[in-house]
């Protein structure tokens, strides 16, 4: 699938030409600029890119959680199962949050309230969105705790977050997120803070629960190894823009954008034995200091002077239909990892 299907019921999330600006000392600064992104029903879509590329800001906009008064959305649209979220009143947004769309974050311990039991925190969303009594919500909370693989759930439901390890706190966050059976789960680096074995268990659990709950997932990560394990499709973000959206296997076999090629070459497993890990030279430009033409051109080995450093660089569609933001689309033979 290279563009969203026509049937709105088949597309859970559809972001179109989205721009987001923040109020700063330099005036309004645009940090997300013309993002197109969609997630189909039951799909897991990876959102990858270096730090500062706009992944979290895009997902917070989808949750309606960007700081009030500090941001504006001058263009674009975010539709959740056909319903427009941009400009939606806060009351309605807070009805959707935790119910139709839920999010888990990198640091689960910071997202949990130390003063309440984990059971009460899972029960809270069920009382708020399902109108369950405290007792019924706690029964359901115990079921959810068991579902996310916490042993002895009936007892642990009365424990406080500090009695749980980091990996278990992330499971609790997943229980809260999935309690109301959302259509879309946004996972923002959910395993980055966990150690490697706990990370692997968490990914396995998310895969299982996706099959069980039929939830669609937008999975934000730096780690292309995680993408390979979890995702059906991938959107690659650079400097506030999506530069390529491809099916997962295709991205790894035949990247369309030189930035994707660079990210793949930097995967540790593919470094030469004893050799240095390749990284992409240079660094991400500041949002207020974007270069003309293609934003990636100062770091790109394939850039052509007079072509890549000037004019607009819209999303283009290649011969195989993959949306790509590269002036040289169709001319380059880029290297994957497979
Ligand atoms: N409240 C804010 N006010 C001003 N600028 C902000 C605000 N929040 C984020 N930004 C800026 O928006 C840009 C995108 O940030 P974002 O957090 O989305 O990046 P990211 O891709 O999630 O990076 P990371 O991989 O480090 O999490 C950055 O330049 C960041 O400094
Ligand atoms: Mg982020």
What would your notes on this structure say?
This protein has a 6-stranded mixed β-sheet, sandwiched between helices. A 4-stranded antiparallel β-sheet has the order 2-1-4-5, with helices on one face. The chain has a domain at 9-231: Rossmann fold, CATH 3.40.50.300. It is 30% helix and 23% strand. With 338 residues, the chain is an alpha/beta fold. The two termini are 21 Å apart. Adenosine-5'-triphosphate is lined by residues 22, 24, 31, 49, 51-57, 67, 70, 222, 287.
Helix content bin: 25-40%
CATH class placement of one domain? Alpha Beta
Rg calc? 21 Å
User: Low-confidence segments, ≥5 residues, pLDDT <50?
Assistant: none
Beta percentage is: 15-25%
Bound molecules: adenosine-5'-triphosphate, magnesium ion
Q: Helix/strand/pairing class, anyone?
A: alpha/beta
Number of helical stretches of at least 4 residues? 11
The biggest sheet amounts to: 6 strands, mixed
> Would you identify the CATH H-level superfamily of one domain?
P-loop containing nucleotide triphosphate hydrolases
How far is the N terminus from the C terminus? 21 Å
SSE succession: EEEHEEHEHHHHHEHEHEEHHEE
Calculate the mean pLDDT score and round it: 93
Write down the overall geometry: globular
Question: Order of strands in the sheet with the most strands?
Answer: 6-7-8-3-9-10
CATH domain topology of one domain: Rossmann fold
What is the number of strand segments? Answer: 12
For the record, the CATH architecture of one domain stands as: 3-Layer(aba) Sandwich
């Amino acid at each position: 699938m290279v563009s969203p299907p026509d049937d709105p019921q088949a597309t859970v999330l559809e972001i179109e030409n989205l721009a987001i600006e923040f109020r700063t000392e330099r005036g309004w600064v645009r940090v997300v600029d013309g993002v197109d992104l969609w997630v189909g029903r039951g799909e897991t879509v990876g959102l990858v890119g270096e730090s500062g590329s706009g992944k979290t800001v895009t997902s917070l906009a989808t949750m309606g959680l960007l700081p009030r008064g500090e941001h504006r959305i001058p263009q674009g649209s975010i539709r959740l199962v056909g319903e427009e979220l941009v400009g939606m009143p806060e009351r309605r947004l807070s009805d959707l949050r935790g119910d139709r769309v839920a999010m888990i974050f990198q640091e689960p311990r910071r997202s949990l309230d130390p003063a309440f039991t984990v059971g009460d925190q899972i029960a809270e969303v069920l009382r708020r969105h399902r109108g369950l009594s405290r007792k019924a919500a706690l029964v359901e909370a115990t079921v959810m705790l068991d579902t996310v693989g916490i042993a002895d759930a009936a007892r642990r439901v009365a424990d406080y977050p500090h009695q749980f390890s980091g990996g278990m706190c992330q499971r609790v966050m997943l229980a809260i997120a999935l309690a109301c059976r959302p259509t879309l789960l946004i996972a923002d680096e959910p395993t980055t803070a966990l150690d490697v074995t706990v990370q692997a268990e968490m990914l396995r659990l998310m895969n299982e629960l996706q099959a069980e709950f039929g939830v669609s997932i937008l999975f934000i990560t730096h780690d292309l190894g995680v993408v390979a394990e979890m995702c059906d499709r991938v959107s690659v973000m650079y400097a506030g823009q999506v530069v390529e959206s491809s099916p997962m296997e295709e991205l790894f076999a035949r990247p369309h954008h030189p930035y994707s090629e660079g990210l793949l070459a930097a995967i540790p497993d593919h470094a030469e034995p004893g050799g240095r890990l390749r990284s992409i030279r240079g660094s991400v430009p500041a949002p207020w200091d974007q270069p003309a033409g293609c934003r990636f051109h100062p770091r790109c080995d394939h850039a052509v002077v007079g072509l890549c450093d000037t004019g607009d660089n819209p999303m283009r569609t290649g011969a195989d239909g993959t949306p790509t933001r590269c002036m040289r689309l169709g001319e380059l033979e880029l290297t994957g990892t497979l």
